[in-house]
Specification:
The protein has 313 residues and is an alpha/beta fold. The protein has nine helices and nine strands. The chain is globular.
């Protein structure tokens, strides 16, 4: 089947509604036919997930928008908060309850105490240990070099040694750099205690995006991978070679094709267990080119979301 035919089939495929359990990691029943037969992928349990950025609560129909995305076969979501978003002013302290599906992130050293005292004591909990510490977004988010960050993080890893909590590695802005190697070289025992390698993938060329995933796997051959941010581009002006010098100009159809190709590789890899598509909210800055939004200005699902919904059986 041609790629365009596969996309059409996936858009028409029925998605799975995520079950409303109270676990941090809810498991979706994702089984189905191979795309070789023109059907949806046989994805790992809980494969499809999403990112909601802090602009989401300011958009129309925030509660319905969130629920629409979660109904599109999505299991978990990531926001930029170590606390439940019902306690986070950046997400508007919503009155509805999206906390059970949230993967918390340690964003700065200030979050370590909360994570130690709260998350490590939860059976089956998951936490990301620093988000893009190699880059400061607009000069606002926390940034540090690998060696000093390792010394800051070491007590948290030590506290987790006898806990069941899944620890996600620092997720880098510059995927494939030597930062993570240097971090672990200065944090004795931390790599062994890391449950999952967390990575961010943005590249308008799907083959290059797949190459970045394969490069991380080559460096960490015994660890499973979660792609905790995934899209062709992180902004209209940056195609996530992280050089900032390229503009992603994919059409809507090409963005859908990008999604199908990269997710087909990831689902079939055997080591990419979860992907988090960025973004769940509406991203008007992209316009009609390379737009990764799963919802539109009203909060309704976009055609791209229908591809995401149909990609796993």
């Amino acid at each position: 089947m041609s790629l365009s035919g596969l996309i059409s089939a996936l858009v028409l495929a029925a998605g799975i509604t995520a079950s409303p359990t109270g676990l941090l990691l809810r498991q979706a029943n994702n089984t189905g036919a191979s795309t070789a037969t023109g059907g949806p992928l046989q994805c790992p349990p809980g494969f499809r997930n999403v990112v909601f950025n802090t602009v989401a609560p300011g958009q129309a129909n925030w509660q319905q928008r969130f629920q629409n995305v979660m109904s599109a076969g999505v299991t978990n979501w990531i926001g930029f908060s170590v606390t439940p978003i019902s306690q986070n002013q950046n997400y508007g302290k919503p009155s509805f309850s999206p906390d059970n599906n949230q993967i918390p992130l340690i964003m700065s050293p200030d979050d370590i105490s909360y994570a130690t005292n709260n998350i490590l004591n939860q059976n089956g909990a998951v936490v990301g240990v620093f988000n893009e510490p190699d880059f400061s977004y607009l000069g606002v988010t926390y940034k540090n070099d690998a060696a000093p960050l390792a010394k800051i993080a070491k007590p948290f890893f030590d506290a987790a040694m006898d806990k069941s909590t899944m620890l996600l590695s620092p997720a880098l802005a510059f995927t494939g750099s030597s930062y993570l190697k240097e971090f672990y070289a200065n944090c004795a025992g931390c790599e062994a205690r890391t449950s999952i390698i967390s990575i961010h993938i943005y590249n308008a060329n799907p083959d290059a995006a797949i190459g970045l995933i394969q490069g991380v796997r080559a460096k960490h051959p015994t660890k499973d991978i979660w792609i905790t941010e995934l899209a062709p581009a992180s902004s209209p002006h940056q195609d996530s070679t992280n050089s900032g010098g390229s503009v992603c100009n994919l059409s809507a159809a090409e963005t859908q094709a990008w999604m199908v190709k990269v997710l087909t590789f990831a689902a079939n890899s055997g080591y990419v267990k979860k992907v988090f598509w960025n973004t769940g909210e509406w991203s008007p800055d992209f316009g009609n080119q390379c737009n990764p939004s799963l919802t539109d200005a009203t909060g309704a699902l976009t055609p791209l979301a229908n591809v995401y919904k149909g990609i796993c059986a």
